[in-house]
Design brief:
two-stranded antiparallel ribbon; single chain; elongated; five-stranded antiparallel beta sheet; mainly beta; about 100 residues
């Protein structure tokens, strides 16, 4: 995948287009991500035991990784990244400002 956990991304398509958020979890097998504050749905939760709160809760649902683009921390623009180095010295680099990501 082109993004990892804790990366800041911007959504490119869909109802949440233009929103930015941090990746909370990534599932490379399915190609999906959970992004903070994006694709929020409401669930009706019933209290299961004594003292457990019930009601309507908001939960982030997964979106496809192909619908997001990484935001460079230096230039604050959505960008693709290049990989510099070989072996264990690989580093992601911003293609717009050449800053290390």
């Amino acid at each position: 995948m082109h993004v990892r956990k804790n990366d800041t991304v911007v959504v490119l398509t869909g109802g949440d287009k233009g929103k930015t958020g941090k990746i909370l979890s990534a599932d490379p097998k399915d190609g999906k991500l959970i992004v903070e504050g994006v694709s929020v749905h409401k669930r009706h939760k019933k209290p299961r035991k004594q003292g457990d709160p019930g009601g309507i809760i908001k939960i982030e649902t997964p979106i496809y990784a192909c619908k997001v683009m990484r935001v460079c921390p230096k230039c604050n623009k959505p960008t693709r990244h290049a990989v510099k180095g070989t072996g264990k010295d690989k580093v992601r680099v911003c293609k717009k400002c050449s800053a290390e990501i």
